[in-house]
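Thread: Newbie trying to understand structure tokens

Hi all, I'm a second-year student working on a class project, and my supervisor (Dr. K.) asked me to get a predicted structure for one chain before our next meeting. I've only ever worked with sequences, so writing a 3D structure as a token string is new to me. If someone could post the tokens and maybe explain what I'm looking at, I'd be very grateful. Here's the chain:
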Amino acid sequence: MSTIPIATALASVMPEGLPVRLSAYDGSAFGPEDAPIEVHLKNERGLRYLLTAPGDLGMARAFVAGDLVGKGFHPGNLYPLLELMDNQDRWRKPTATEALDLVRGLGWEHLNPPPPPPQEHLPRWRRVVEGLRHSRSRDADAIHHHYDVSNRFYELVLGPSMTYTCAIYPHADATLEEAQAEKYDLIARKLDLQPGQRLLDVGCGWGGMVRHAAEHYGVKALGVTLSLEQAQWAKEAIDRDGLGDLAEVRHLDYRDVMEEDFDAVSSIGLTEHIGIRNYPDYFGSLRDKLRPGGRLLNHCITRPHNRPTQTGAFIDRYIFPDGELTGVGTVAAAIQDAGLEVQHAENFRVHYARTLAGWVDNLVEHWDEAVAEVGEGTARLWGLYMVGSRIGFERNEIQLNHVLATKTDDTGVSGYPLRHTF
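---
Reply by user tm_fold:
Sure, no problem. This is what the structure looks like when written as tokens:
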């Protein structure tokens, strides 16, 4: 039995002066009555989520389950709340004594953890039992967990480009669709694609790069993805666009591509799933797919440092199981160690923050249809994830980097011009 009001107890571990009102199912409230944002804890299950998994995981569970609701923000766009909560100058973690006092005041009976929401994946230690990290079967399961949500849901969120990677904004007023087209075109220019050449796009998603290269550069492009739903959607799009003579997407592990001597290889958003210890094999495999003088463009999320780090509990359980990130220096070093020559690197961190804001706007605009398609819990989950990621890019906690490299031959010939042409 609680001996202190729930809202008062929760407020004790919140940043002081936060312009947010807290309220709870016991009728308690804390904070200014005229606060622009109110967060309401609906039930005892939500309290148990918060107490048994302190931090982002507990909050995510309560929010996804619908036990934590609010006013002053849309359930698909928590940016007004999380932008305040994530201000490190105002946030203070409770000490061990404060945490103990909190539990004592609210009652020990709340430490019985409820089952997590159905959208949650198994924890890392449970997944180890089911297969070695980044084994083929476990990678396929992780990709299925994240990408096989619903093609229609992705259409609503991503927009007509059906592109789930960082867009590149050619100017401040560019639309999301213009920026996604610019991203594919910049990659094509960096790879110096020419009519009649052959491109391999690993982790091709819904085939955006494959279709762009075929349509605008006359390239014979092959894309591979571990997501069956992505591959089926991409095949339909290729047929719809009349690109079947040039573009192909296969439901296939990149390690099982038999063809070689490609003029170019693009990896757009796959490296995050590979595992840092597997970089040598990964980049070695991509090198072996290239002809001498061929080019590789690697596009991936990175850290602003080169220490290998796993994703947090929320991201690991709900979004990218087994995901690992490190700095662009580590990525570039692995590419070099695989025998490729690094020619150029570029950071698009602020572009990804803009991209995520655009996706969240799409989710809010199509909220009712998104909820009807995947359920409110999953729609809430994606809003939470995209807003949190946007804040991470804005605050330089994560970055997005391109690394361009060539398969330079044994005599030092790379085919690269004296200066960049893109």
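A couple of things are worth pointing out once you decode it. The chain has a mean pLDDT of 90. The longest strand covers residues 290-302. Feel free to ask follow-ups in this thread.
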